[in-house]
TrEMBL record:
PROSITE patterns: QOR_ZETA_CRYSTAL. The gene is KAFR0C00580. GO terms for molecular function: 2-alkenal reductase [NAD(P)H] activity; mRNA 3'-UTR AU-rich region binding; NADPH binding; quinone reductase (NADPH) activity; zinc ion binding. It comes from Kazachstania africana (strain ATCC 22294 / BCRC 22015 / CBS 2517 / CECT 1963 / NBRC 1671 / NRRL Y-8276). The keyword tRNA-binding does not apply. The keyword Oxidoreductase applies. Keywords: NADP, Oxidoreductase. This is Probable quinone oxidoreductase. It holds the Pfam family ADH_zinc_N. InterPro entries: ADH-like_C, ADH-like_N, ER, GroES-like_sf, NAD(P)-bd_dom_sf, QOR-like, Quin_OxRdtase/zeta-crystal_CS.
Length: 334
């Protein structure tokens, strides 16, 4: 197909706690420069909380910075050395700058070829499930290998990644203690596999965890909140427990002495998805498993809402207000 010289993108041109730096505007369309590059025309792209970290300056970014981390679409150009993809292939992939009509991916390591028969509804689910699904899937295997009977403390249990965590933990026979800010969210977490429920606005999290675990504490905590929950999470862990910190929803965890981990021999991790799927075979393994779980109906991906690309500001406000459940995606203009 013919690729236009300019395209519509969603970018930030400054750093701010607010939304005024988010712009929907024309931007140069990428072109193939090296032999291993791939250009994809995007159809749907997922909204992730991490976008706010770039906007607020928590994570560094070279401005102007095109947002986005995952998408589904069609291959429209490939470099001379690309052998596993061809123009016209439907794909699901992870890369930067996906809030755009066209995205250039440095190589095919994190591009997964989909069957030609993949439907529009499947594309929506894959766009909604890639990063959050792969995050939960790799974390319950590699950050901490969840075993039957484990007690698991899970924050943001009704968010996009939280609902997937709930389902995977149930498949493994774990006792999930779900934390969320409303009873409605907790009900959704329970529907997806949570066994015990804690309302973060009404309950004392530590007291409830001690009650549920008969004073032993949890085997592992998956904490995406960050600063506000660090001390509580540390107290909720059992001896030789594992603290998986993977988000900054309330801000980064302040520096602390490592000796804080010694009294209970706590293992602390700060993993990121890409550390587990850096190689092509790793990405393919987990993506095949994820898509199989979605297609078989064993894993339900809850779509909260589909926004137009130009309406990302509203999507950002919605996800950052913590009023959403499940996943938000953007439809990219064709």
């Amino acid at each position: 197909m013919s690729i236009p010289q300019s395209q519509k993108v969603l970018l930030i041109d400054g750093l701010s706690e607010g939304y005024e730096v988010i712009k929907y505007e024309d931007f140069a369309t990428p072109i193939i420069v090296t032999d291993d590059e791939v250009i994809i025309k995007n159809r749907y792209t997922g909204v992730n909380y991490i976008e706010s970290y770039f906007r607020k300056g928590i994570y560094p970014a070279e401005l102007p910075y095109v947002l986005g981390r995952e998408a589904v679409g069609t291959v429209v150009a490939i470099g001379k050395s690309v052998r596993d993809l061809k123009v016209g292939d439907k794909v699901s992939y992870i890369a930067g700058a996906t809030f755009a009509q066209f995205t250039k991916v440095p190589n095919s390591t994190h591009v997964f070829k989909l069957p030609d028969t993949t439907s529009t509804e499947q594309l929506k689910l894959y766009a909604a499930g890639m990063i959050q699904g792969l995050t939960a899937l790799t974390f319950v295997n590699e950050a901490y290998d969840v075993k039957k009977g484990d007690y698991v403390l899970l924050y943001a249990a009704a968010g996009g990644v939280g609902l997937i965590f709930n389902q995977l933990l149930r498949m493994r026979g774990a006792h999930t203690i779900a934390v969320a800010s409303t009873n409605e969210k907790l009900s959704l977490a329970k529907e997806n596999g949570a066994e015990f429920l804690i309302n973060s606005k009404e309950d004392n999290i530590l007291e409830k965890v001690q009650q549920i675990t008969k004073g032993n504490g949890v085997d592992v905590a998956f904490d995406s909140v960050g600063k506000d929950t660090f001390e509580t999470t540390l107290s909720c862990l059992k001896r030789k427990g594992t603290f998986v910190s993977y988000g900054n929803a309330s801000g980064p965890v302040p520096p602390f002495p490592l000796s804080r981990l010694s009294p209970k021999n706590i293992r602390l991790l700060r993993p990121q998805l890409f550390g587990y799927v850096a190689q092509a075979d790793e990405f393919r393994h987990y993506t095949e498993e994820l898509i199989s779980l979605i297609d078989s109906g064993k894993l339900n991906i809850k779509l909260f809402k589909i926004y137009q690309l130009y309406d990302y500001v509203q999507a950002a406000k919605d996800i950052e207000s913590r009023s959403t459940t499940g996943k938000l995606i953007l439809e990219v203009p064709q």
